[in-house]
Amino acid sequence: ERQVKFVQDHISSTENNLSNLHQSFGGYVKKIAKLRNKSDEIATAIYSYSEKESINKSVKFCLRELAGILATVGDCREVQIKNLDVRVVREFGQYDTLCHNAKSEVRNICGAKDREHNRRRHLNRTKAEAEVVKATSEVTRMQKALEEHVDIFEKKKLQDVKLILRNFVMEELSYHARAINLFTSAYNCIDKINENTDLEVIVCFSYLYPFFYRNEITNKKISQCKGVHYLVVYRNALFKKLL
Predict the structure, then answer these.
(1) Which among 22, 30, 205, 227 is most buried, taking Cβ atoms within 10 Å?
(2) pLDDT reading at 218 higher than 50
(3) Backbone dihedral region of 53: left (phi > 0), alpha (psi from -120 to 50 degrees) or beta?
(4) What Pfam family does this protein match (any one) (predicted)?
């Protein structure tokens, strides 16, 4: 009876622990999914900014490239989410059924064992010796079956926990390795923004707008104006003339 109680308690403890892991990893994956959605919103906002930007050329091109990189990061997160769900969350989730079946099997084995004990108590004297030997053999067989069942369950549990946790770590490493490369590219992309050149262009517009391309700029997007590329030259020439 002590052996049976130990087995039942151990299976219940395993069920509780793995259920907690299942819920925790499930919540983790849901949080990543929400983060992935927010990162998509950021990428969309950056791309929208790049489309509307018409004066600061380096900002425009870098923002467009950055939006693409962040979208790729989001795709990597999507792969991470799917793999974690399949290789971690669902694997832990199956133990709800496995533990339930294990406890049922233990109850079945114990029920057969109890029946053999009762049988031994009700034997008549003429058949006592032969039946006791038979009953003892049955009890021994049931006990061995219980031990084998526990060994199989425990071995599978240990192997699965090791494999599932390893899968989790490998998925995290895989995602973050790709993310590091992508965010490095994003950093280099942002570094290409030439604030001096873009500032010069806006200063040119503030100085020269009253004198040059009034109609052209009014009727077109600034990015389409033929004279935009020459504003710096005009400004410098104007300053030299004034001096």
Answers:
(1) 22
(2) no
(3) beta
(4) FAM92
Render pLDDT for 144-190 as a digit per residue (tens, 0 to 9): 877 888 889 999 999 999 999 999 999 999 999 999 999 999 999 99
One-letter amino acid at 50 equals S
Separation CA 88–CA 100 (nearest Å) = 20
| Closest to 14 in 3D by CA, of 148, 107, 153 | 153
Q: How many domains does the chain have?
A: 2
Rounded to whole angstroms, how far apart are CA atoms 200 and 63? 19
The C-alpha angle 196, 241, 200, rounded to 5 degrees, equals 10
- Measured at the CA of 198, the angle between CA 197 and CA 202, to 5 degrees, comes to 115
Indicate whether 200 and 123 sit together in one domain: no
Residue 87's pLDDT is what?
96
Tokens representing residue 10 in the block: 């151990």
Q: Please check whether residues 164 and 74 belong to one and the same domain.
A: yes
Full residue range of the structural domain in which residue 228 is found: 195-243
Instruction: Mark whether 113 and 220 lie in a shared domain.
Output: no
* Residues 208, 235: Cα–Cα separation, whole Å: 7
| Distance, CA of 102 to CA of 164 (rounded, Å) | 20
Looking at 153, 176, 193, the residue that finishes a domain is: 193
